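Propose amino acids for all 143 sites.
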């Protein structure tokens, strides 16, 4: 944590890694949600969703680790920052939405069959939540 405060390079590099990791997670979530909604149909569903899940599995731990490092620099300020609090709340809701999706939904048997209406609704909620997470994250430094 001290290196993040005193080094000219450490904080910007960790911040850049955090943004890249969030970008990968966000892009993969958006692509998965669009595939579930039926917008993206040009690739086979199962391998596509598997690839997106793998991207998230690699990037999400990096986003969490770098986020915790960035948080540690100004923990008291961030803890009371309304944009940070909103981001955390949206992350919890996105996690609950994902857990509900995984518990309730069964993938259609083939690429030609669509997901159910409730699965599509959960994908739309996911898109809104992750967009909110990114926006709230960008406002943390400005509030």
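Proposal:
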């Amino acid at each position: 944590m001290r290196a993040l405060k005193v080094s000219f390079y450490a904080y910007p590099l960790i911040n850049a890694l955090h943004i890249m990791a969030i970008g990968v997670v966000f892009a993969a979530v958006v692509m998965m949600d669009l595939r579930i909604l039926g917008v993206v149909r040009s690739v086979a569903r199962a391998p596509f969703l598997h690839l997106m899940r793998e991207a998230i599995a690699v990037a999400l731990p990096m986003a969490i680790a770098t986020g915790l490092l960035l948080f540690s620099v100004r923990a008291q300020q961030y803890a009371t920052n309304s944009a940070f609090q909103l981001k955390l709340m949206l992350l919890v809701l996105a996690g609950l939405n994902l857990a509900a999706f995984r518990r309730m939904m069964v993938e259609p048997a083939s690429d030609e069959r669509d997901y159910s209406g409730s699965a599509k609704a959960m994908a739309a909620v996911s898109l809104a939540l992750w967009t909110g997470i990114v926006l709230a994250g960008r406002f943390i430094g400005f509030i």
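The first helix runs from residue 2 to 6. The chain has a mean pLDDT of 92.
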